[in-house]
Design goal:
382 residues; alpha/beta; Rossmann fold; six-stranded parallel β-sheet; globular; Polysaccharide pyruvyl transferase WcaK-like protein; Polysacch_pyruvyl_Trfase
Length: 382
C-alpha cells in the first residue's frame, strides 16, 4: 500500500551505536485523558516488540504535549514554503512515523480541521521520504465527499494500514478496494499486566463528557442511569467505587468533578489515578468495571478484569465484538433499562463469562502479534 519502503537511515548515539527513531503521531504520554496515554504507551510497546527495547519512541500530539513543536494551524502556516520549517525538521529527524489516528479521529465526524492536520503531517512525511504506518486504530466513518477524499489520500500514501476492528477494515475496503495490511486490535492489550494485592468489588467509571449536555446521548437520561445503577448494585450488596478515567484538566469534560461530587453525595469511594499505570492497577484490583469511557473498559479487559461498557459511539461495539466481547450496552438505545445492565453485571460477577474473557485476551494478543510481525518485515538497512 502506498510507495515502496525505503531503508532506514539510522541515527547514531554518542557511543556510535545505531538507534532507530520512531515518532508516534497524535499521542501524548502526559494527557489528562488516560485513553490518549494508552495510545502513546501501547504504540511504544508495539515498536519495542518489533525492533527491540533500544528503539527510541517519541510522541507528538496536535499541540506541544511531549514535543517542542505543535502541529496545529499556526505551525502549518509557518512551515509553508520553507525547506526547513519546524514541522519538516521534526518529521525528518525520525526513521519511521506511526500515526495513531488519536485512536478514533481518522474520520470526518470531528470536523475538517482535525482531519486536515492529520493529512498534512502524512503529506509532509511522504514528501520527506519518511515512511508512515497507520497504527491500529478506528478508521472512518467518512460521511462527506471531502472526508472520503482525505481518507483515500492518507491511506494511499501510507506504507502500512492497521485497523483495530472489522468495521474499520470494511471502510478501508470501501475506499481503496482492498483490505488493510493488518486487522489488529487496540494497543491497550500490548501493555504489561500489573500485579496487585488490593481488592475491590465494582468500579463505576462516570463520564464527565456525558454528564453535561453533549451530542452523544441525553445527559439527563445518563445521569438517571448512573444513579440507578449505583442504587441497584448497592441494594444487591455490592460495594461501588467511582473511577475517573479523564483526570483533572482544563477540559470541562474531565471525570473528576462528577466522580467526587457523586462520591460525596452517596458516600462512595472516588478513585482518581495520576496516570494510566495507576489506573491499570485500580481496574486490576476490581471484580468488575462498568465504564462509559471505552479505554476504562479496555484497560480492565486487558488486565483480566470483567467489564461492562456503556457505549455512546460507533467505536465501542465493533471493537468489542471483534475481539469476542458482546457484553456492551448502548446508551443511545431507547429500550435500554437499568435492570438489564445490572442483571448482566451480576452474571459477570458470578463468573459466567470468564471463559469468554480468557478467549478475548488470547484473540487480542494474536491480533497484536500480526501487527508486530508486519512491522518486523520493514527493512532496517542503514
Amino acid at each position: 500500500m502506498g510507495h515502496q519502503w525505503r531503508g532506514f537511515s539510522r541515527h547514531f548515539s554518542g557511543r556510535g551505536e545505531a538507534t532507530l527513531r520512531v515518532l508516534v503521531l497524535w499521542a501524548d504520554s502526559r494527557s489528562a485523558n488516560l485513553g490518549v496515554q494508552v495510545l502513546a504507551y501501547g504504540m511504544k510497546e508495539l515498536a519495542r516488540r518489533a525492533w527491540g527495547s533500544d528503539v527510541q519512541v517519541d510522541f507528538q500530539d496536535y499541540g506541544r504535549g511531549d514535543s517542542d513543536v505543535a502541529f496545529g494551524n499556526r505551525a502549518i502556516v509557518a512551515d509553508l514554503g520553507k525547506r526547513r520549517g519546524d514541522l519538516k525538521v521534526k518529521l525528518s529527524s525520525y526513521d519511521l512515523i506511526i500515526d495513531s489516528g488519536a485512536g478514533d479521529s481518522f474520520a470526518d465526524i470531528y470536523g475538517a480541521q482535525r482531519l486536515l492536520w492529520m493529512a498534512n503531517a502524512n503529506r509532509l512525511a511522504a514528501s520527506l521520504n519518511v515512511p508512515v504506518v497507520l497504527g491500529p486504530q478506528t478508521i472512518g466513518p467518512f460521511n462527506t465527499w471531502w472526508g472520503k477524499a482525505i481518507g483515500r489520500y492518507v491511506m494511499q500514501r501510507a506504507n502500512q494500514v492497521h485497523s483495530r476492528d472489522r468495521a474499520s477494515s470494511d471502510y478501508v475496503s470501501e475506499l481503496l478496494g482492498r483490505r488493510p495490511d493488518v486487522s489488529s486490535t487496540d494497543v491497550v492489550f500490548a501493555l504489561p499486566v500489573p500485579n496487585v494485592s488490593e481488592k475491590r468489588d465494582v468500579l463505576l467509571n462516570v463520564s464527565g463528557l456525558l454528564w453535561q449536555e453533549n451530542h452523544h446521548v441525553d445527559y439527563e437520561k445518563y445521569r438517571r442511569v448512573i444513579r440507578e445503577i449505583i442504587a441497584e448494585m448497592t441494594r444487591n450488596g455490592r460495594t461501588v467505587s467511582l473511577l475517573s478515567h479523564v483526570i483533572e484538566s482544563e477540559s470541562p469534560d474531565n471525570d473528576v468533578p462528577v466522580c467526587r461530587a457523586l462520591a460525596d453525595e452517596l458516600n462512595l469511594e472516588a478513585l482518581v489515578p495520576v496516570d494510566v499505570t495507576e489506573a491499570r492497577r485500580m481496574v486490576a484490583s476490581a471484580e468488575l468495571v462498568i465504564g462509559s469511557r471505552m479505554h476504562a473498559c479496555l484497560n480492565a479487559l486487558s488486565v483480566g478484569t470483567r467489564s461492562l461498557p456503556l457505549a455512546y459511539s460507533r467505536k465501542f461495539a465493533p471493537l468489542m465484538n471483534d475481539i469476542g466481547w458482546s457484553h456492551v450496552h448502548d446508551l443511545r438505545d431507547e429500550d435500554l433499562t437499568v435492570e438489564r445492565i445490572v442483571a448482566e453485571a451480576e452474571e459477570l460477577l458470578r463468573g459466567e463469562y470468564d471463559d469468554e474473557l480468557d478467549a478475548l485476551r488470547a484473540n487480542a494478543e494474536s491480533r497484536l502479534s500480526d501487527s508486530i510481525e508486519a512491522l518486523k518485515k520493514i527493512s532496517l538497512t542503514a
